From TrEMBL:
Organism domain of life: Bacteria
Name used for this protein in its record: MFS transporter
Compositionally biased tracts (Gly residues): 425-436
Molecular function via GO: transmembrane transporter activity
Start-end of Basic and acidic residues biased regions: 402-414
Region (Disordered): 402-452
Record's keyword terms, sorted: Membrane, Transmembrane, Transmembrane helix
Gene3D superfamilies, alphabetized: MFS general substrate transporter like domains (1.20.1250.20)
Transmembrane segments: 46-67, 79-98, 104-123, 144-166, 172-193, 224-246, 258-277, 289-306, 312-330, 350-372, 378-398
Amino acid sequence: MFRSLRALSGVPRLRSLLSLSLLARIHMSALPVALSFLVADWTGSYASVGLLSGAMAVGQAVAGPVRGRIADRDSATSVLFKTGTGYAVGLVLLVVLAGLAPSGLWPVAVVVTFFTGLMLPPVSQLSRSIWPRLVGGEQRQALYTLDSTGYEVIATIGPLLATAVVTLSSGAVAVGVCAALAAGGAMVFGLALRSAGFERAEPPAAAVSSKPADRRSLLRDATFLRAVAVPFFLMAALFSVNLSLVAWGRTNDTPKTAGVLIALFSLGAAIGGLVVVSRGLKPHSGRTTSGLAAGLIVLALLLPPVSDHTPVWALVVVTLLTGSAVAASLGSSNSRIGELAPPERRAEAFGWLATATTSGAALVLPLTGWLLDLQGPAASLGAGAVAAVLSAGLAFSLPARAEESGAKESDAKSDGYGNTRADGDGTGDGRTGKGGADGDDDSASESTAEVK
């Protein structure tokens, strides 16, 4: 039952790198709660919380591929040091602005949060770009699921930490703690990458062309584009949960309960992910995301204005069960990105993943803030359920993995865009019709097949 975990535990340097990368990301789960309390107390409006959080997400989305390209071509450690410092400075500036400026000037903070988002340390994309250098074959998806599961464990601690700091002090102090965690974590992980010899990107394979055409955007490939769209809508669904529960907690004067529910959502994801990894399962992202959508619909029906008197135990049960689909969904979609990306462009590929996930957050946060002010948590969670349905539909539309369609990995070779072609047959990673290295959209005709 635990053979996958035992196999991964024996991979050199994996435990230290995975642990440090997770600790360096703890601020990401704590900041939404801390920022929500800081901005809501400053402005008295959830719409402003959504807009400021969305501006930060836009900044993260814009910078994701750029940071990835820099890390692919330069020093990953240097990128982490510089972005960690800039990100911490931006968060501290936001705290100062909220403490000194009148609430009517909150739109100025949109610029601050945008530039802060530009400086988010790319710990996630760098760590995910090196996992294929540590393991291969069947272990790869297990490692990506373990990465997502580990983050969900950290995400359980983050909201509780932020809520505890808010309760004992204020939202401003909680944001300051996030700034310190982000800067310190990025620097320590950067030093670990240097020590492990992963400071530089993996050199391109000899068979990969070095022509300028090979450096065209990865998004030119229709399969890669759809694969990136899966986590875009998935993250939009997930971000609707945090803000909705924070709003429910503030309305009912129970911020601690809201923090606990958010943590339980992550705990459910961690439990679900551990089950997947320990049993060696390979869940389909479309199915698990469909389960997430169903859970969000049920949760929406339990919150205002649909229901004003739902017992807390019912929210606990539904939140746990809904969260259990998260890690498997994220792990499958992340593994697919790593599979499609050329080895020498993985940091860039996961930069596009970062862009997709933060763009999903940027899409949903202003919308959920507006729906919270207009209707309440049920409406904002309903929007998240719609996003989850779209993510599931895209996952079902993708072609099968090479191993699922019967192609042997040893007989496959990269075309420069991360697609695989079986020797001599000219087809691209399970697609019918045209295949090849150009990545043109007209090569994307395929039969519907499972990808995860």
